[in-house]
Amino acid sequence: PEGTDAASPTGSRLRPSEFVVNSSSASRLNPSLPLSQSAAHSYQQGCIRMTLENAELWKSFHRIGTEMIITKHGRRMFPHCSISLSGLQPLANYVIMVDMVPVDGFKYKWKKEQWEVAEKAEPQPPRRTYLHPDSPAVGAHWMKKSLSFLKMKLTNNTLDQHGHIILHSMHRYYPRFHVIQADSLYTVCWGAVQTFSFPETVFTAVTAYQNPKVTKLKIDHNPFAKGFREGGTHSHSLQRMPCTSQSVQAEQNKASTLKLLNGGHLSSWALEQDSSESIHSEPLEPQEYDYSYEEQMVPASAAYQPYRSVEYGKLPLPSSDVDPAQTLFRSPPPPHPPSTTEQATQHQGYYHSHHHHSNASDWSQHPLFCYSC
DNA sequence: TCAACTAACACGTTTGAACGGC
DNA sequence: AGCCGTTCAAACGTGTTAGTTG
Fold first, then answer.
1. Residue A236: nearest nucleotide (C-alpha to C1')
2. Is the CB of A169 under 7 A from strand B?
3. Nearest nucleotide (C1') to the CA of residue A153?
4. Could you please report the per-residue DSSP string of A61-78?
5. Cα–Cα distance between A321 and A75 in angstroms, integer?
């Protein structure tokens, strides 16, 4: 609430004025805000680092276009989200959470062995957050070993009562990890939020696998799918499936996407941008995530430059009253492009510092969080 | 007609209780 | 009594497939 002190990740107490609260998406995404200025402020808050475990596996899927099955009763992710943390205060309590963020404003379809934009995205389902079962725990605990979100499940059932993450099929998402300094689940909303995401974790939610390459990769790596490996009862069906080369497919996707978008919706930015740099379009989906906190984009390291925030200067964004559909159409939907981040030697998370200073109602958007309480 | 979705299925993995040995 | 390792059955998770839905 306004007027209440909030703890920084470093444990220092900051005056409310240091947490600029503004629920206006236009303000949060103000192109005129110097990034370096934001970054400087963020680094003062602490130096929490997050690393994606099994990053190579994620990349393997990312190269061909990760698909995640969603079912009525909930399906685990594979690869599952697993991270490691450093830079936390050993004795301070933290809560770790994950939510899923739409990559763009499109619904996709699998046509002729490639993903194409089908239509505008459906209205976003109830946004839920998965709370790591160890939460809250001290920083020393979180840094002791990697954190697994193995048991997090995805569902397409908007009436789900089990607290699973609700997603739309044929839409693209990426997991976003929140590190919140808080002594208990009840005080989470008063803590500072630091958010991380990884470009290679973008996936398309599906009710049935579309790309046979994804199926094969899952069978090869997921122990639960061992029964379907070569020599199994069903593996023959995979071998019949024709495949196009990655490069050709990527070009086809790009071409089809641009073709579809052309016709008044495609901006010059979309034409200029290489698809590999447009995976992460978080800055273009402000309407998707209406928390009342200042959103600061801070690149974690130079190695992650390809994952930098969008250059707003190239975007002809109106100052306010942004029509979600129009905004989203300004962003070229990436046909799961090969990520340039594969060149990075480290897999440190793309780091946003959300110095959260909001009221409890903001968190009421997280049913799972309520369940935990 | 067709793409998307659902539920049943077979198979392998995981989990945890029960047990025995030290 | 407590700890450790093994066994085994039940529960769980997986992709496939045929049928259903819109």
1. C16
2. yes
3. C13
4. HHHH--EEE-BTT-EE-S
5. 37
In 3D space, the residue among A71, A123, A127, A112 whose CA is nearest the CA of residue A335 turns out to be A112
- The Cα A364–Cα A188 span in angstroms is 12
| C-alpha separations of A258 from A268, A275, A314 in Å | 11, 11, 18
Average pLDDT by stretches of 10, chain A with 373 residues: 30 26 27 30 60 93 94 94 93 93 94 89 90 90 90 92 93 95 77 89 95 90 73 38 34 38 30 32 34 30 27 30 34 43 43 43 39 32
Length of chain A: 373
Nucleotide nearest to A241 (CA to C1'): C16
Q: Which of residues 33-52 of A touch strand C (CB under 7 A)?
A: none
A312 CB closer than 7 A to any strand C atom: no
State the pTM of this model. Answer: 0.64
